[in-house]
Task: inverse folding
């Protein structure tokens, strides 16, 4: 047995430098290019945040106007992509996004005339159209127009979802959640996108890697799973008993814990405030009492306190999204769409970092030493079931 230390889950492994975002998990601090996440969520828009992440500075009014127009101009999808999306009717929305991304990559590949930045703008703008086209086709057999003149991606998304322009409160709430999800240093999906980028593969490939990785319940899929957990209980008492039972069975409680935050996730605090504003309009969701009870236990119970497990952003975003009329299976794509901005910013860093190398770790070998090949007729008649 080797004495090499294996870093399970790459815990505490430093892979590259980055200027995109900074987390101090001990005090619950998150910065986007030096700007506090609270300031961004309160004062910015998703498009402005994307600009900041991509260009490293806040845009001037003119720069933002041009960038908004550029994104708006990229909303329409080629007929062939729509046809692919129509075929994958019974899929999970994350699979639709991954498939749509690949399909667009086949039709509009990076080339001498379409550079990586154009592809990036295209994907950012096309994802909501892709997803809502699929949703409307699947839900009611409608082939919707994906072009709207809504000024923001959040407004565009909500418009395509309900078939009419959305109200300001919903737009602002979705926009704020997009800002919170936009970037989060070397999480699993960003790392996956970076690994793909490290081979100098095209941007579509890097993004499909990111989408596939984000889908899992330990990562982006946690918001859907957290909602499923909350919906399991009818009353706060039931929630308490159910949670204790889960801990006794050593089950993971979805929506709690984080690899880096060992304090309150600042995004969770902000989304909770945004959710409160949504509830003022939609009325208080009964699920909120269940969620608050689960949170109360987590903040007081020894199990959570000792391990420094706090509710994360995914715990609250689901309740808010549900109050806004989203189905739970949509929750993870509401994370993936804005995170495309972070993948993009980090992919740019990767390609411009002269020190960067192809990602290629080593294994600790625990298999057989060299052994003689056995001809098939000498291997017996047994059947091993998998
Ligand atoms: N519920 C119950 N116990 C949890 C837990 C959770 N959600 N998250 C971590 N723990 C426990 C672990 O079992 C472990 O306990 P132990 O010391 O007795 O073995 C301890 O806390 C440390 O956890 P560890 O597995 O080392 O944390 P990690 O950094 O590898 O994992 C997550 C981080 C996010 C994957 C993990 O907290 C998790 O699975 N959370 C639920 C999924 C989720 O909400 N993901 C979204 C993240 S934004």
Result:
């Amino acid at each position: 047995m080797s004495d090499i230390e294996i870093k399970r889950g790459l815990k505490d492994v430093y892979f590259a430098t980055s200027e995109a975002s900074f987390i101090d998990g001990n005090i619950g601090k998150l910065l986007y290019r030096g700007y506090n996440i609270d300031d961004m969520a309160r004062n910015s828009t998703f498009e402005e945040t994307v600009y900041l992440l991509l260009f490293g500075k806040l845009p001037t009014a003119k720069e933002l106007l041009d960038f908004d127009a550029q994104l708006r101009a990229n909303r329409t999808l080629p007929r062939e992509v729509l046809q692919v999306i129509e075929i994958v009717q019974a899929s999970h929305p994350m699979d639709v996004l991954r498939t749509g991304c690949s399909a667009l990559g086949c039709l509009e590949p990076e080339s001498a005339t379409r550079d990586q930045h154009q592809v990036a703008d295209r994907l950012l703008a096309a994802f909501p159209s892709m997803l809502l086209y699929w949703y409307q086709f699947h839900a009611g057999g409608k082939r919707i127009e994906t072009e709207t003149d809504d000024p923001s991606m959040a407004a565009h998304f909500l418009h395509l979802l309900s078939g009419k322009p959305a109200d300001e409160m919903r737009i602002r709430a979705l926009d704020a959640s997009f800002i919170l999800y936009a970037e989060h240093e070397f999480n699993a999906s960003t790392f996956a996108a970076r690994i793909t980028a490290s081979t100098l593969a095209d941007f579509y490939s890097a993004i499909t890697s990111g989408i596939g990785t984000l889908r899992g319940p330990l990562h982006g899929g946690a918001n859907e799973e957290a909602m499923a957990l909350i919906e399991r209980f009818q009353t706060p008492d039931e929630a308490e008993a159910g949670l204790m039972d889960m801990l006794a069975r050593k089950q993971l409680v979805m929506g709690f814990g984080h690899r880096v935050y060992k304090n309150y996730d600042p995004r969770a605090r902000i989304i909770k405030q945004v959710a409160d504003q949504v509830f003022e309009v939609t009325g208080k969701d009964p699920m909120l009492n269940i969620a608050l009870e689960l949170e109360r236990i987590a903040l007081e119970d020894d199990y959570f306190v000792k391990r420094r497990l706090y509710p994360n952003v995914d715990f609250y975003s689901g309740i808010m999204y549900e109050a806004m009329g989203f189905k739970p299976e949509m929750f993870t794509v509401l994370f993936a769409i804005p995170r495309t901005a972070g993948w993009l910013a980090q992919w740019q860093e990767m390609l411009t970092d002269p020190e960067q190398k192809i990602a290629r770790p080593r294994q600790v070998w625990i298999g057989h030493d060299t052994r003689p090949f056995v001809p098939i007729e000498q291997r017996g008649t047994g059947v091993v079931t998998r």
Notes: The chain has 17 helices and three strands. The two ends are 27 Å apart (CA to CA). The pocket of coenzyme A is lined by residues 9, 218-219, 222, 252-259, 307, 309, 312, 314 (CB under 6 Å). The longest helix spans residues 116-140.
